[in-house]
Amino acid sequence: MIIQLEPNIKEEELEVLKSQLSSIKYKANKVSTQFGDYIVAVGKKDFDIRTIGKLPGIKDIHRVSDAYKLVSKKWKVGQTQLDLGDEVKIGDGEFALMAGPCSIESEEQIQKTVEHLKANGVKIMRGGVYKPRSSPYSFRGLGIDGLKLWHQIASEAGIKIITEVMMVEQIDSMIDYIDVFQVGARNAQNFNLLDALGKVDKPVLLKRGMSGTLDELLQSAEYIFSNGNEKIMLCERGIRTYENAYRNVFDINAIATLKEKTHLPVIADPSHGIGVRRFVDKIAYAATVAGADGIIMEVHHSPEKAFSDGQQTLNFQEAETVYKKVDKYLELRDSL
Amino acid sequence: MIIQLEPNIKEEELEVLKSQLSSIKYKANKVSTQFGDYIVAVGKKDFDIRTIGKLPGIKDIHRVSDAYKLVSKKWKVGQTQLDLGDEVKIGDGEFALMAGPCSIESEEQIQKTVEHLKANGVKIMRGGVYKPRSSPYSFRGLGIDGLKLWHQIASEAGIKIITEVMMVEQIDSMIDYIDVFQVGARNAQNFNLLDALGKVDKPVLLKRGMSGTLDELLQSAEYIFSNGNEKIMLCERGIRTYENAYRNVFDINAIATLKEKTHLPVIADPSHGIGVRRFVDKIAYAATVAGADGIIMEVHHSPEKAFSDGQQTLNFQEAETVYKKVDKYLELRDSL
Amino acid sequence: MIIQLEPNIKEEELEVLKSQLSSIKYKANKVSTQFGDYIVAVGKKDFDIRTIGKLPGIKDIHRVSDAYKLVSKKWKVGQTQLDLGDEVKIGDGEFALMAGPCSIESEEQIQKTVEHLKANGVKIMRGGVYKPRSSPYSFRGLGIDGLKLWHQIASEAGIKIITEVMMVEQIDSMIDYIDVFQVGARNAQNFNLLDALGKVDKPVLLKRGMSGTLDELLQSAEYIFSNGNEKIMLCERGIRTYENAYRNVFDINAIATLKEKTHLPVIADPSHGIGVRRFVDKIAYAATVAGADGIIMEVHHSPEKAFSDGQQTLNFQEAETVYKKVDKYLELRDSL
Amino acid sequence: MIIQLEPNIKEEELEVLKSQLSSIKYKANKVSTQFGDYIVAVGKKDFDIRTIGKLPGIKDIHRVSDAYKLVSKKWKVGQTQLDLGDEVKIGDGEFALMAGPCSIESEEQIQKTVEHLKANGVKIMRGGVYKPRSSPYSFRGLGIDGLKLWHQIASEAGIKIITEVMMVEQIDSMIDYIDVFQVGARNAQNFNLLDALGKVDKPVLLKRGMSGTLDELLQSAEYIFSNGNEKIMLCERGIRTYENAYRNVFDINAIATLKEKTHLPVIADPSHGIGVRRFVDKIAYAATVAGADGIIMEVHHSPEKAFSDGQQTLNFQEAETVYKKVDKYLELRDSL
Q1: Dihedral of CA B141/B147/B153/B158: which sign?
Q2: Chains near C (3 or more Cβ pairs under 8 Å)
Q3: B210 near C CB under 8 A
Q4: Is CB count within 10 Å lower at the N or C end of chain C?
Q5: In this complex, is the C-beta atom of A310 within 8 Å of any C-beta atom belonging to chain B?
Q6: pLDDT attached to residue B234
Q7: Average pLDDT in the A198-202 region?
Q8: Which residues of D are less than 8 Å from B240 in CB distance?
Q9: D334: distance to nearest CA of chain C, Å?
C-alpha cells in the first residue's frame, strides 16, 4: 500500500496515520523524494483502505500488490519523464538516443565523438571511465581525470554525459561532471550503491542484471526511489542463456512487459543485447517498435582500435544509418 | 564441401568424382532434391577445390565450413522462396502472414476463422489437429477427420493450410490435405521425422527446439534438405530461460542472425515467443523490422473459450490491428 | 484422482462408477497395465472421495494433485522395482550399474565390453545402434543388424541390453533383442513414441529432456504408464545452461527431488551429465549418495578410437575404479 | 606468465626484469601478498621463458594460459590451506563445516547456535548482519552492533565467524570481529569490493554469481589475490536455470571441475544450492564425495520462526544428522 502525503501534512496527522497502520500491523516506510512524501506500508491484513484515505493530510492512497511499489504502474498510471536540462528529456513521449564508446580513451576520441553526435542530433553521450572488467589485468578506465576532460568538452558542445558508477565512494566526485549515473549489469543488485544513488538528485539508468528477472530489476529501482530519487530509467541489455551464437539474448519481451509494469522510461541497449556489430541495427529497430523510450549504443570513430569490446561497436557511418532509421520507425510507431 | 552436379552428369563422370573424393578421404553424401543433385563431401584434408570443380559434370562447387551445409548462405547466396501455389509465396521478398487457432475444434470455428482470414487478406491458416500435450490426459486434437473437414472448407476459400505433423506414420495420410507441414519445438530433433519429411515434396516449417541452438536448428533443416526436400522455412518461437514473467523469451537476435546464416525463409511466432496475449503485437512488429520473412500467430474468434492455450491467442479484432500494423512496418522496412 | 479397480470388477459396477464421475463432471481415463486396472479421473469439482471409494469393485482411491498421476508417490508410496529376469532388478533397494559404449561398432568391441562387464559384475550393457546425431552426415549407428549381433553375444554371456529406440516403427523389430528401451533426451517429449512404448511389456528408461523440467519428465512417464506399461525408470542426464566449462550441468537436485516425487527408479547418467571424461567418476559418486537407484555410464576399450563422443567415455580401467567406489559409497549410504 | 620473485630481490634486478618484459611487450603487474612477491606479465608474444627464469632474483616462473593466473593450478600445484587460528584450518586435507542462521537475530539465537555448534564440533559459524535483500522494505540485518554481540559470544566459545560484507566502507569496522569475510553471489563481480578485500589480511569466501561462470569466479578470486590477499576460498551455491522445482540448481560439476582448475579450497553451500530444507542433506553428501573442502549450511533453532529464508534452513536435530553423515562420507572418500 502506498500513501502519498500532502506536502503540508501536520506532525500530529502523521502520528495518527502511523498509529492506524501500526494497529493493523503494517510496517510503515517513510519515503521523501524530490517530488513528494510517501508512506509505503507493508503488511498482510486485509482492510478497507478508504478508512486511511479519508484521514487529513493524505493526498492519495493505493494498494500495490507487486513486490515493487513506488515504481509500479499500479501506483502511478502516467509515464515518468526525466528532464536533463537544456530541453533534453526522456520518457513520456520523449525518445532518447545515447551513443558513445565503451571506454573514454583520449581527448581526440572525445572530440570526434562529440562532433559526430552533434552532427546527428544525438544529445547524450555514453562512455566508461570506470570499467568493470572480468580480469584484474585489463584496462579499467581513465577514472575521474578522464571524466573531467570529457565533461569539459561535452558541456561546451551541449552534450549530456551518462557514465557508469561502480561504488558509493565515487558518487560525490563524479556528480558534478555527469548528467546520468549508470548502474551496470554486475551491480544491478549492489544494494548499497542503489541506496546511495537514491540519496542524490541525479537521474540513474539502471541496467538489468546478467540473469536478473524483471521483478528484481524493478525492486532494484525501488531501492533508488525509496531512498529519495524518483529520476530512474531502466535498461534491457540482454540476458545470459545457453545460446553461443551471440554474447547475450536481447530480451525483446522485457521491453513490452516493462512498459506495462512500470511508469519509468525503458531504454534498450542493442550493443550488449546481441554483442555482434553487424546485427546491432536490427535490435535497435526491434526495440524501438516494441515500445522502448530510448536506445543506448556503442559507437567509436575506429571500432577496430577501441580499447575494449570493439566487437559490438559501430563506426560513425553505421551509427548514422541507425539513428536515421530509428527515427523513421519511431515516427511510424507513434503515428499508428 | 558442396558439389552441385549437372543434371545430365554421366555415370562414369560421377564415378571419377567419387574416386577423387575417396582419394582425399572425403565421405561423399549424394543428395537429390526437387531442384538439383548434389554431393555433400565431408572430410578434413585441405586441398584445392578447383581440381574437382573442373571435372566434367560439375556445375558448381563451394567449401562450406559450417556444421550445416546445403542450408548455409555460404552455399547459396540468394534467398530461397517457397511457392505454395495460387500466388502464395514465402521468402525472397514475399512476406507471409499465417494465423489461426491453437487447435482445430469445429466446423463453425474453421468457418469463422477462414472468413476472418479472407477478409484480411491472410492466405495461410494455422491450426493443430495433432497436438503435442505435456499431459496424456489433455485434449490431443481432432486428428485426420478434423484435418479433412478443415481442408474442405479452406481449399474452397483459397486458404492454404499449415499444421503440425508429429510422427512419420501421419505424413502419408496428411499430405493431400495440407500445404505446409509444421515440425513442433518438441520434435525439432526428431531425426526420423525430419528424414521422412525430406522425402516428400511439400514445404516444411521447422520450429526451433525449446532450448535449441541456431546451429542445431540449421542442422535439423539440413536433415530435411539432404533427404531431398529443399522447401524449408525456419521458425523462431521463443526459448526457455529463467525468466518467469512470460512463457518464453522471444529471441529477436535469432531473426537477425539466421537471415545471415541461411538462405531459407525465417518466420517469427510471436504468440509462443512471449505467451502473453496483450504483448503478442509488439513482438510481431519487432520481428518484422528485424528482418523476418513472415509471422505465424494464434487467433480465435473467442480466445477465452479456446480448447487449449487461449492465453496467448488474439481475438479477430486484435489480430486485424496486428495485420495492418505489420504491413505498415514491413512497407517502411522495405523502403529503408 | 486415481481409482484402482478390483481385477474382477463387473461391467455394471464399472458403469455405476463412470456415471458417478460423469455426474461430477470428471473425465475418466481407463488405464490397464501389466499389473492393474485404473481410472484416472480429471476434474475440478471438490467432493468427498469416500462416496466413490465405497462403491463395489473399487480397490483403492486417492486424490493426486500433481500434473502427473500414476507415477506420483502420492498414488503409490512404495518404490517400484523393475525385474529384467535372471535376478537382474532395478529399484526398491536394488542398485543397477549399466555401462557400455556410445555406439555399438563391431563384434570385437561387443565382446571386449561384455567380458569387461562380466569381470566386474555389471549385468546391463548400454550402447547405441540407432544414434540421434545433430548432423545428417554423422555416423548413425549399425541399426538392427548390429543389435542382433549384440544380442547374440550378450545373451550368451547373461548380460542384459539397454539401447535407444528413436521411432515407433523400430519397436517391433527391436523388442526381441533388447531388455530395456531407452528414450533419449531429444525424444523426451515425442509423445507418439511414449504412447507406443506404453503398449509393450518391456522396461523403459526415460531420459530428461535437454532443458526439460522434472514435471515434464514425470508427465512423459505418465504417457507410458497410462498406455499400459508400468515398467519405467527415469534418468537425469544433465541440463543445458549458460556454463561452457562442461557440456551439461548434472542436476544433482533432480536426483533427490525425483525420489520424493515418484515411486519409479531414478538413474543417473554421469557421462552426459558432465561430458568430461576425467570428472565422470565424481558425478557418479555424488549421484549415488544423493539417492540414485543406478548409474548408466559410457565405457569403451579404447575411448580415443570410439566412433562417437569419446570425450566422456572411460576406458575399462577407469571404469573398474568407478564400479568399485560406487559400491563402497552405496554400502555406506545404505548403512546410514 | 607468473614470475615469483625472491624475497630479497634487488631493485636493480627488478629493473632488469621489467625492461626484459617491456622489450617483449608484456605488461607487468606487480603483486605483493602476505606470502610472496610476484610479477604477473600479460602479453601475446611467444618466447622462451627460461631466458627470464635464469635472471637473478627470480624464484620461479610459469606460463599460465588461463584467463586467471595466480589462482590457477597451473601456477601452484599444491593445495592452498587457510589457517583461521586455534587449529581451525580449511583446505589441503582439512575439511571445514560452517553452519548458522541466515540472519543474526538476537543474543538468545546466537547462544543457542553456538552451543549447538560446540556440541557437534563445528568450529565456524555463519550468519548475516548485513543482508542483501531484493526488496528495500525487507529486514536488512542487525548491522555492526549485531556483529559485535555475536563476536563476543562466539569468541568466548572458541567459534570462528564468517559473515557477508557488502561494501568497501564496512570492511574496516567489521575486520576485528570476523574471521572470514563472505562475498555474496550478488557481489561476485563487485570489483571494487574485491579490490578492497585484496588489501586486508583476512580470509575471504567468494560465492559464485547467480549465473556466473567458473571462469568469472576464478577471475574474481584473481582480483583479491592480485591485490595482495592469498587467503581465498571459493563457494558453489547453485546457479539460476529454467527449473522451478527448486530455487537454484546446485552445480555438482563445478565442485569436481574447480578442484582441477584452482589450488584454492572449494566450499559447497547446499542450503542455497537447492533451497529446499528436506533435500539439503543429500546435496551436502553429494558435494562431499565430489571433492568439496567444506560445507556451509543454514541451521536455526527454530527454522519456522527465522527472520528470513527459513525454507532452506535445518533445525538442530536435522543438522546433527548431516554433520555426522558428512563425516562418514568424508572418511570413506579419503580412504578410497
Answers
A1: positive
A2: A, B, D
A3: yes
A4: C
A5: no
A6: 98
A7: 98
A8: 242
A9: 12
Sign of CA dihedral C248, B188, A255, A63: negative
Q: What is the mean pLDDT of residues C174-195?
A: 97
D192/B71 Cα distance (integer angstroms): 48
Inter-residue long-range contacts of D33-37, CB under 8 Å, 24+ positions, other chains counted: D33/D225, D33/D228, D33/D229, D33/D230, D34/D201, D34/D228, D34/D229, D34/D230, D34/D231, D35/D230, D36/D4, D36/D5, D36/D7, D36/D230, D37/D4, D37/D5, D37/D7, D37/D9
- Closest CB to B286 among A215, A242, A286: A286
**What are D245's three cell numbers?**
522445482
CB contact C327 to D (< 8 Å): no
Q: Give phi and psi for B127, each to the nearest 5.
A: 165, 150
Subunits close to D (at least 3 CB pairs below 8 A): A, B, C
Query: What's the pTM value of the predicted model, to 2 decimals?
Result: 0.96
* Contact yes or no for A15/A32 (Cβ under 8 A): no
Give the three cell numbers for residue D223: 582480483
Enumerate the H helices of B175-306 as residue ranges: 191-197, 214-226, 252-261, 270-274, 280-289
Domain B82-335 in CATH 3.20.20.70? The answer is yes
Give the contacts of B314 (CB within 8 A, at least 6 positions apart): B271, B277, B280, B281, B297, B298, B299, B300, B303, B322
Contact C138/A at CB under 8 A:
no
Angle at C78 between CA C73 and CA C81, to 5 degrees: 105
Residue of A242, A243, A247 to mutate, testing the C interface (most C Cβ within 10 Å of its Cβ): A242
Please say if the pLDDT value at position C140 is more than 90: no
Given its phi and psi angles, is residue A100 left (phi above 0), alpha (psi -120 to 50 degrees) or beta? left
Render A203-221 in DSSP notation, one character per residue.
-EEEEPPTT--HHHHHHHH
Task: Kindly state the average pLDDT of the residues C125-144.
Answer: 92
User: Which of the following CATH numbers is that of domain C2-62: 3.40.50, 2.60.40, 3.30.70, 3.40.1090?
Assistant: 3.30.70
Which of C40, C169, C193 has the CB atom closest to B137's CB atom?
A: C40
Q: Mind giving me the DSSP string for C212-267?
A: --HHHHHHHHHHHHHTT---EEEEE--B--S--SSSSB-BHHHHHHHHHHBSS-EE
Residue corresponding to grid cell 590477499 = D229
Given CB atoms, is A242 within the 8 Å cutoff of chain C? yes
What was the ipTM of the complex prediction? 0.96
Q: What distance in Å separates residue C316's CA from the closest CA in chain A? A: 33
The residues spanned by each domain of chain C are 2-62, 82-335
Q: Which of B241, B286, B336 has its CB closest to that of A289?
A: B286
Which residues of chain D have a CB within 8 Å of the CB of B211? 242
The runs of H, that is alpha helices, within D132-231 are 143-157, 168-174, 191-197, 214-226
Minimum mean pLDDT range among A24-28, A228-232, B263-267, C290-294: A24-28
Q: Are C102 and C125 in contact (CB under 8 A)?
A: no
Strands (DSSP E) contained in C89-242 are 89-90, 96-100, 124-126, 160-164, 180-183, 204-207, 232-236
Shortest CB distance from A252 goes to which of B242, B250, B328? B250
* Model pLDDT for residues B289-330, shown as the tens digit of each residue: 999 999 999 999 999 998 876 799 999 999 999 999 999 999
Q: Which ranges of chain D have pLDDT less than 70?
A: 309
| CB of A219 less than 8 A from some CB of D | yes
- Residue B27: enclosing H or E segment and its boundaries? strand B27-32
Sheet holding A27-32, edge to edge: A27-32, A37-42, A2-5, A58-62
Considering only B21-25, B304-308, C57-61, which range has the smallest mean pLDDT? Answer: B304-308
pLDDT, mean of residues C261-290: 98
**Residues of chain C positioned with their CB less than 8 A from the CB of D255:** 282, 286
Residues of C in contact with A210 (CB under 8 A): none
